[in-house]
Amino acid sequence: MMQPISSPSNEDRDAGQMLLATGVVLLMSLLSMAIFGVKVAGLTMPHDTASDGVLVTSQEVVDAVPELTEVRTQLWINGGLEPLQAGEIAFQSVHDDMLHHGELRGIEIKLIDIQVNETSSTLLHFSGELGISDGSAMLTIPISFDVEHA
Question: What is this structure's pTM?
């Protein structure tokens, strides 16, 4: 005689759901450990000693900042601002653009301790410290230049 197949009881369903939940938790734990292992393994990777991104970028920035600041200062003065205020706004805008440009290249570029002084009626003195970092190397360079305005 064949016995009819009975439907699973509530206890069987609950046990099956608990087993499934335990499996999901175990799977998530293993995945978490695998990700952590990959991160730790990457810490021992040697840095590329031939990488010169920070040096190249620092030279580009040192060359570009005075010219950009001078042009922007003159634009603000022509727009009606006082020379000192124009210089401060110009230097800050150059900093903001360099910061954004560096983010796009994967390099952090910052101008720290920005100072603008009016040394004469036609001369502004700009100074600060340029900081450049790419995650494996960091370089700080003092930067100082004068801008003559009309």
Answer: 0.62
